[in-house]
Amino acid sequence: MPILEIFSQGEEIVTGQTVDTNSTWLSEQSVALGFTVSRHTAVGDKLGDLIALLKEIAQRADGCLCTGGLGPTSDDLTAEAVAAAFNLPLEFDETAYRQIERYFNNRKRPMPATNRKQALLPQGSIRLDNDWGTAPGFAVRAGRCWFAFMPGVPSEMRGMFIERVKPLLTERFVLNPSRLVTIKTLGIGESDIQQRLDGVSMPDSVQLGFRAGVDEVQTKLLFPANYPETDRTTLTEQIAARLGDFVFGIDGLSENTGNLAAVVDKLMRVAGKTLAVVETASQGLLAAKCPGATWLKSALFEQSLSALGQRLAVAVDANDLAATGVRLAKALQAQNPTDFVLIQLYEGSPAQFQDKDRTIILYNTLLTQGSLQQNRHNLGGPLGRKQNQAALLGLDLLRRHLQNRKI
Prior knowledge:
The protein is of the alpha/beta class. The protein has helices spanning 11-14, 21-33, 47-60, 78-86, 94-106, 154-172, 190-197, 229-243, 260-271, 285-288, 305-312, 321-335, 350-354, 383-402; strands at 3-9, 36-43, 63-67, 90-92, 120-122, 126-128, 137-142, 145-150, 179-185, 207-212, 217-223, 247-251, 275-278, 296-300, 340-346, 360-367, 372-379. Helix 3 (47-60) packs across helix 4 and helix 9 runs parallel beside helix 14.
């Protein structure tokens, strides 16, 4: 596969003032096309550093996607660096200038004289029109490498990549994209996943990787383009079976399942069920993760157990939250005739819940038309993390019930 690098330019990147989301997005796009992404490099606004890096990349990579440094100010040095690195004098591009001028005219604003700089492009380069901002991009070949230079503003970069750069990449390179399959889990960590996969015979051509996020842990399988589809499905299913009921979705085999909330939303809609929920711990975050969910008929965000008992006219017992959860669920279902009722309760006071150094126990109760299911989980960390985990664990309880998985 062709080797490609990602190159980000800007002092704000190397000093940490700006998070470089462009490189992540471009890497995902490039791998999906069939490139091997070998490096991410960031350089500040120093002409000598830019020139040196461009010369290095020209000798070691087949392609390079570059972002930033195309603006009108003195610290935007990309075009100048390319001209110096590859002996390609800057030339005034009349079409680029008219496009920049039109951008300002359409917004009823005078164009500053400094913007003329953006129309200076390296000799022999291909202009990449910018329909989303003022900075035109450009593409040029130097050494073994084909470079594409795009703005650093993410919205402009993404539009230019999709509309201008991607078609050029597919014309210039023979690409056989790999196939990425992602197994998504909740409630199990990377080390436990690795242990469960011990003994699985992994072909040398398949890359296994893991990614732990806030809302899920992903087990990633990257298959080469020529890997047989039946073998890909068999290996994926074998690994998913090892991970068991923790798996809530698999992307890359047929359709993409989305996040946990999307999985639950589809299951609820297909089942034709409705839900009422009490969010003492997630405080509305569960409902917020499911915007537009017509199956969510009632959501209470009361944090105080005693206030919740008064609201539903139920006797509560802080020392027996399991039994209290059942009584609250039945009372809420009587007030809101839904198919399911989900009750979140937790040990301790709201102040203790907010204490980042305190681990609390979350009690979930799910009352359905034919069953009553409960589980407990330990929640730790800052308030936001506890709220998010409570929301996810509530949704996962719904998912497991709807999929007939172990609670």
